[in-house]
Input
Amino acid sequence: MRRLAWGVAYAAALGLSPALGQDSSALQLYTLPAGATPSSSQLGSFSININPGSGLSGNSAALAAFNRAAAHWMAYVSDPVTININADLTGGFASANIIGQTSSVLLQAPYTTIRNAMVSDAAGDSFRAIDASLPTSAQFGALLPSGYSLSGNLQLTKANAKALGFTGLDGSFGSNDATIQFNNAFSFDYDNSNGVTPGTVDFETVATHELGHALGFISSVDNIDGAAAAFADTPTPLDLFRFTNGGVNDPANASQFATVPRDLRPGSDVLFTDTVNRFRFSTGLTQGDGRQASHWKDDGLTGTYIGVMDPTLPSGVVEPITTADVKAFALIGWNAQVPEASTWTAMAAVVGMVGIQAWRRKKPRLTQSTTQV
Ligand SMILES: [Zn+2]
Output
């Protein structure tokens, strides 16, 4: 069932341009089959399958960079599922400011169906212990702008649903999980192994970021932020970790995590928290800090780089996956682990790069906007 009644584009892509970038993607909302239940006995390994269009398959350097981006996620995730991504490097974008866009297939189900899948999928995983305290439907509440209510459902990307063990989704909804397009009018550096050429955008970072949205790093707050009228909101798994930063609605323990309302108000100072790890979110393109809510807080605004789901990317810079990213993806349903010791060398290099960004920030920051409503 398509639910486009909101008339709001789902914003879940990294937009980049010399001045302004843009995230935009069309909302596709389907309903999970009645009685859909996650399977707990899958075996196999995680795989991201890139189905390149002619513009990408004809650019071997770009395709190789995209596959490295997919490999970054595969290094952290062990769910026995295959994600299928249609991707292309193409023209014909609605705006010259759009460098890339992702359209994920979104599924919805009653709150309890997805909440229980998150709880059971995380069972026995100490890295995801907080998921056991996800609110029941009776406990769940949210801070919303005036006039808004909760629909009673949760929505998530089809890829995220696969991670939670829902099966038969490709048969019901088609094999594709998301479509990612890159604007071939931009200058990309397709090989960051020797640095990123000044003035060009690191294609591998953008691809990694876009794949992150496809895997489920999305927020319904972007729908609220761009809406012309109030509606019944359908939060995402990531929204279940979105809390007011500080005060009585900032949970300090598992008990409070189960009962404190989530904060889904554009413009509200919010953070991702499992009561131990705390990472700020962006607060909204229109009513918030000028960045889409489905991102970490912009390091260009705070000076603190949180992870690859940062909303902006300067030219000439690589932005890698961090433990913050991995934590978030784990808690929304992925069997994701923090980096092994062998990768800490790479992480250390990242820390060094943050210092470099201090002076790079003098360059125009790439920001994003959305025009689809
Ligand atoms: Zn993005």
Remarks:
- The CA atoms of residues 135 and 258 lie 4 Å apart.
- The radius of gyration is 19 Å.
- The chain has one domain: 20-369.
